[in-house]
Task: inverse folding
């Protein structure tokens, strides 16, 4: 809403500069988003909140300014107009199809107007608030619209079929060409004004081209009405049109302003274009409901946290147009018609608070009692994030809404039914993702394009899918690795190429930290591994196929990804640590170097060693793996490090040697391993 | 005589130490003298065989000698180690890159969100998360947003395609599903589950069908907070927010509350801080206003309490909500919201 400094001054005395006024208005809830000096005046652009349609008028803003600055508003209501009703006037009938669509319709017929350009002052004032001058009649209606907040419309009476003015819904197939030159197809959802033959206006939105007031117009019909806000909004939306009139009707126009504005416009038209009003017709005036809201004086202070003096409270409320009567410790506050937003005591508390000034309310501190209920899920996820970044991974945040084509079933992603959006704005918002992997691949692709050599990222967010009739939100950890990196050590450079074992390593670290022991990785298909805890699948790990990568825009690269369903892991997690006494006796370490066929699983060898050397074996680890000159092709060399120890005594060489020999023999026999 | 013995032994030891040039020989010598069966052990062992009147003196002499010997060994060891190192590597170039594993970092949205939650945790608020798919009831109706409010439009909220609902029949708002357009529905959920006092912050993703540009995204993060108890006042809201904003943006910033309108709070306020770039003088970041809008807030509307079954005469409460990206953008000087979801590593590694 735009208003000018001088226009406000028509209604009250303002003794502070425009800038100071803008600041005061902002701090009273009428945010001035811009203030510009133009043509010797100041234009205020005000963001009026949707609950305050009364401030979409100069008079409404003036009322606020008066309260804020402690002045009185001048009474500028139109006096009664001396109408020459009757004479040659044809009787005009108003028929409203449904009173719910239009609770009041008034029409004045003004004859013998002289249409012409508006005077300079009017043109200028309208230009300042962003309205182009058309002619004196249209300008008069627009001027009153701005001043009173009630949209008006003037028809060229001669273009209307005489008889009846209808307020009705549009019919299938009906068309109208509106003032902006657009032909619009009407329907049941559009409320129109019509004569007995055709629609002549989109009610509360815009008039038709062929009934607009032009320089040839002699007689006019001046409409002032009250249309249903919802109907106006729906109609405007379905036609994709916006207007100053619709903007106000949608937010709600006060009943009282209909007649006041109509009368004011009539006066202004007489003043600018002559003519005389010959008829005034109106539908039955609905009853305005007089609301009285009771406000306990204690309530005011106990909600705001400050004591507002009673006299101050009263003067604020009456300045805003409320009628206040004190009844003991309560105020009976009669709400004026233009304040449809006020319905309960807290609404009045806000009125008093905002004019009293939020800055005059102190800052205090509420006592907050300790509450139980910190969820493990949250602390667990935070811990997980910290572990992952300490391992060098980078957290990403990607959009949960994606393109349908990104939501395909991968080798490892179950083919669940995806959750679709009914009203996406674009294809990239069609569905909620059912896996984090496609989004992670998008990140990988972007960073590869930025020439990143090594990408190791993770995200913790939700997957979505339908389970029978319920949408499920599944908290998941997604991981993706791609590329290689060099570690420059004192001995030289080591190149590290990202592969599935990197993902495994990350997951193992997490499982260990979370106190999960019974985890495993099991091949499910080519390049795809199930991640299990206690035989239950809790996610997957995959060496993604070139086909999938190409669809994500990644060519000739290896990308490995994993997704773990956290709610499942959380059930297995045990973050409660228990102290284990430190070892009392030293142990003995023995290495085994062996050569095995490629396809013999290292995990099986470890298991065999554990079986053979139990219970003196405390730990066995693979410390080296090599292929090359000394190893025939189809084979690989492994070095195992076995650590023997017991809590009962210091082990001796004599005790360990035969045991270790037994282990080596078993490996030879079971795996055809060559011990070196 | 024992005293002569010690002197002889000390001379021999000095000569032997002087002659040692390798670590191996050094260790051998050390064992010879200081080992379990070494010379000093022998000397100590010989004490009982001496006449009673000589034992004390001899013991003192042995101990003194042992002390000198130990420091001589230590000194020699240091010399040997230094020369060994010098021989090993001719030159240590400390200007070579250090060797360490690179740390990853948390996404700036996570960092800021956690910082905000931590501040409110210190004030006694619980951190709670909620579902992203919500009912129309929780997202709107329960929050006193009327049935015809524009924010319910398909232009402002993403609705879920629900195959179960018959298309002709109008679904109940407790059945109709949408992507939450704010984190406020958690007010309804939590208040229905629990009784006051209740002090909670809710971080999470929210969705709105906005066209994407430098300051809009159809998905972003919000943090909702609310406190409900007997006797909670607007002034308490002011205190809590002032504390919070000074923790995030520094003790020098100023805060102001501007009256505003939200259907679920009354009175309502928008919260501005003095511009962190120009400290209120006016610059391009604050649009020459000197103030930056950071939060929406207010006293929880009695109708919200009625919806969840709290007695609005008995309880009052405040609520506030903020965009995490907005706070992060101000805090770090980021000028394009799309950077958060692009996940360019060059961007992420800066935080």
Result:
């Amino acid at each position: 809403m735009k208003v000018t400094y001088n226009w406000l001054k028509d209604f009250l005395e303002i003794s502070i500069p425009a800038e100071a006024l803008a600041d005061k208005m902002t701090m009273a809830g009428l945010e001035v988003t811009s203030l510009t000096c133009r043509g010797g005046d100041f234009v205020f652009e005000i963001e009026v909140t949707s609950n305050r349609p009364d401030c979409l008028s100069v008079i409404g803003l003036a009322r606020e300014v008066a309260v804020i600055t402690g002045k009185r508003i001048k009474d500028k209501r139109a006096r009664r107009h001396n109408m020459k009703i009757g004479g040659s006037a044809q009787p005009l009938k108003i028929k409203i199809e449904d009173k719910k669509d239009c609770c009041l319709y008034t029409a004045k017929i003004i004859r013998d107007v002289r249409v012409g350009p508006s005077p300079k002052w009017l043109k200028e004032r309208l230009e300042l608030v962003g309205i182009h001058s058309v002619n004196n009649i249209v300008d008069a209606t627009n001027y009153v619209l701005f001043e009173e907040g009630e949209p008006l419309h003037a028809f060229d009476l001669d273009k209307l079929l005489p008889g009846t003015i209808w307020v009705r819904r549009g019919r299938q197939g009906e068309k109208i060409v509106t003032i902006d030159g657009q032909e619009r197809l009407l329907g049941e959802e559009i409320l129109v004004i019509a004569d007995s033959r055709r629609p002549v206006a989109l009610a509360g939105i815009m008039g038709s081209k062929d009934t607009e007031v032009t320089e040839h117009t002699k007689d006019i019909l001046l409409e002032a009405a009250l249309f249903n806000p919802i109907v106006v909004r729906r109609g405007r939306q379905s036609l994709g049109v916006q207007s100053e009139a619709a903007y106000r009707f949608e937010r709600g126009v006060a009943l009282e302003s209909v007649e006041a504005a109509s009368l004011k416009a009539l006066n202004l038209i007489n003043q600018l274009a002559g003519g005389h009003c010959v008829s005034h017709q109106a539908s039955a005036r609905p009853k305005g409901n007089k609301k009285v809201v009771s406000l306990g004086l204690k309530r005011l202070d106990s909600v705001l946290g400050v004591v507002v003096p009673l006299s101050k409270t009263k003067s604020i409320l009456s300045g805003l147009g409320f009628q206040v009567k004190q009844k003991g410790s309560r105020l009976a506050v009669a709400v004026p018609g233009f304040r449809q937003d006020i319905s309960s005591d807290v609404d009045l508390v806000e009125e008093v608070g905002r004019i009293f000034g939020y800055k005059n309310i102190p800052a205090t501190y509420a006592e907050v009692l300790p509450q139980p209920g910190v969820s493990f899920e949250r602390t667990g996820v935070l811990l997980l994030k910290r572990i992952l970044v300490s391992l060098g991974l980078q957290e990403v945040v990607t959009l949960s809404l994606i393109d349908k084509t990104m939501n395909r079933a991968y080798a490892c992603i179950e083919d669940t039914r995806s959750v679709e959006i009914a009203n996406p704005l674009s294809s990239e918002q069609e569905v909620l993702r059912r896996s984090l992997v496609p989004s992670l691949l998008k990140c990988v692709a972007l960073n590869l394009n930025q020439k990143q050599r090594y990408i190791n990222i993770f995200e913790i967010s939700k997957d979505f899918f339908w389970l029978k009739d319920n949408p499920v939100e599944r908290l998941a950890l997604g991981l993706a690795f791609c590329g290689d990196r060099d570690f420059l050590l004192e001995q030289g450079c080591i190149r590290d190429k990202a592969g599935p074992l990197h993902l495994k390593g990350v997951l193992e670290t997490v499982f260990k930290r979370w106190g999960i022991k019974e985890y495993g990785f099991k091949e499910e298909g080519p390049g795809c591994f199930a991640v299990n805890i206690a035989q239950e699948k809790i996610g997957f790990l995959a060496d993604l196929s070139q086909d999938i990568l190409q669809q994500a825009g990644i060519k000739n690269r290896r990308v490995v990804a994993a997704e773990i369903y956290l709610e499942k892991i959380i059930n297995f997690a045990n973050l409660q640590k228990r102290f284990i006494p430190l070892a009392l006796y030293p142990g003995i370490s023995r290495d085994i170097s062996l050569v095995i066929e490629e396809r013999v699983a290292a995990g099986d060898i470890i298991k065999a060693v554990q079986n053979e050397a139990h219970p003196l074996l405390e730990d066995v680890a693979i410390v080296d793996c090599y292929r090359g000159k000394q190893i025939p092709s189809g084979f690989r060399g492994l070095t195992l490090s076995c650590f023997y120890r017991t809590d009962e005594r210091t082990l001796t060489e004599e005790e360990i040697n035969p045991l270790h020999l037994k282990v080596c023999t078993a490996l030879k026999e079971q795996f055809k391993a060559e011990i070196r | 005589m024992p005293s002569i013995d010690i002197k002889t032994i000390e001379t021999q030891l000095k000569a032997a130490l002087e002659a040692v040039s390798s670590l191996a020989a050094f260790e051998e010598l050390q064992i010879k003298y200081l080992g379990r069966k070494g010379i000093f052990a022998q000397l100590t062992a010989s004490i009982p065989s001496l006449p009673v009147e000589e034992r004390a003196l001899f013991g003192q002499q042995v101990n003194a000698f042992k002390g000198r010997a130990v420091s001589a060994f230590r000194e020699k060891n240091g010399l040997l180690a230094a020369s060994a190192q010098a021989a090993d590597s001719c030159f240590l170039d400390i200007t070579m890159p250090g060797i360490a594993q690179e740390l990853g970092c948390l996404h700036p949205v996570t960092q800021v969100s956690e910082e905000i939650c931590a501040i409110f945790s210190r004030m006694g608020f619980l951190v709670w998360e909620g579902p992203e798919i919500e009912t129309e009831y929780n997202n709107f109706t329960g929050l006193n947003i009327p049935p015809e409010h524009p924010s319910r439009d398909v232009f402002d909220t993403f609705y879920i395609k629900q195959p179960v609902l018959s298309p002709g029949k109008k679904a109940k708002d407790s059945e109709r599903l949408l992507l939450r357009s704010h984190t406020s529905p958690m007010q309804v959920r939590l208040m229905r589950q629990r009784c006051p006092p209740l002090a909670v912050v809710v971080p999470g993703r929210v969705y709105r069908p906005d066209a994407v540009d430098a300051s809009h995204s159809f998905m972003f993060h919000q943090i909702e907070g609310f406190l409900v108890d007997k006797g909670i006042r607007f002034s308490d809201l002011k205190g809590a927010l002032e504390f919070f904003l000074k923790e995030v943006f520094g003790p020098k910033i100023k805060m102001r509350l501007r009256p505003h309108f939200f259907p679920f709070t009354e009175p309502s306020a928008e919260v501005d801080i003095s511009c962190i770039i120009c400290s209120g003088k006016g610059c391009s970041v604050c649009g020459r206003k000197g103030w930056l809008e950071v939060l929406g807030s207010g006293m929880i509307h009695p109708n919200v309490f009625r919806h969840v079954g709290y007695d609005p005469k008995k309880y009052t409460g405040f609520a506030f909500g903020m965009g995490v990206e907005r706070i992060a953008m101000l805090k770090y000087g980021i000028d394009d919201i799309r950077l958060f979801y692009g996940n360019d590593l060059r961007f992420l590694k800066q935080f």
In short: The CA atoms of residues 107 and 343 of chain B lie 9 Å apart. The first strand of chain B starts at residue 126 and ends at 127. The two ends of chain B are 77 Å apart (CA to CA).
